[in-house]
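The authors assume throughout that readers already know how a fold can be written as discrete tokens. For illustration, here is how one protein appears when written out as sequence plus structure tokens.
>
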Amino acid sequence: MNAKLTRLWATKTKDDEWWSSFVTSPLAIVLNYFVVDIKWLTPNLITLISFITAILASLLIVVGSNSNFVCAAVLIHLSHVFDCMDGQMARYRKITSQLGAYYDRITDQIQVIIWFGAVAYAAYKQSDNVLPIFLAFIGVAFYSLRGYIKYVMIYIKMSQDSQYLEALTKIESTTKKEDSAGLKFGFSANLKWFLAEQRKILAFNEGVFIFMLSLALVLDEIMPMLWVFALTQLYIGLMRSWQRSAQIKNDVISIINK
């Protein structure tokens, strides 16, 4: 087996999002195979290229027309492929950095906002109704809340225990997910992995957005996608909020009972 391809496959995130697992991440590995050794092409530069591609897709959505929607869908997928490439390249070269991770996450969040903002505007132009703008706002707001809840929880835990983050890092490092599929596994193992990955669609994370958004643009059926986006993010955001509050309450009770 090609040693370079094996090394690149090892950089694939073990717990990728739904669409990333079997589409954009493997495509990123293929592209990285040809460019990963080009020294001037850095992971941060690829992050920038991904972000610019996402902006171009948003502009095409705002301009409108079926052909522009299809081109935008292609660019959205391409942007996500680049988004997978930067991390793979950094891990392959062993040059991962906090700054690179910061840029990657910030641009990811901005991309979701501008994509759905553009789609809401396009749907508003089609229907002359403010409902799509409201749905996009609800979806983006509660999607952002999901991440905010996580970091608020970490902050609260660290305010109670300064060693919490270090302990959490140790737990994550000792519970790394082992490969169950890939180049060195057979057809049945890969098929089993593929079928199991389909459950991730219920998480309605960024990988699912890529698929939903691009499909809606190709079919020119934006409103149904916005309804799904808004309702799923509202539900998951509220559910995560309740789960975290229940966890904090249980922690307080356990401290009192000690």
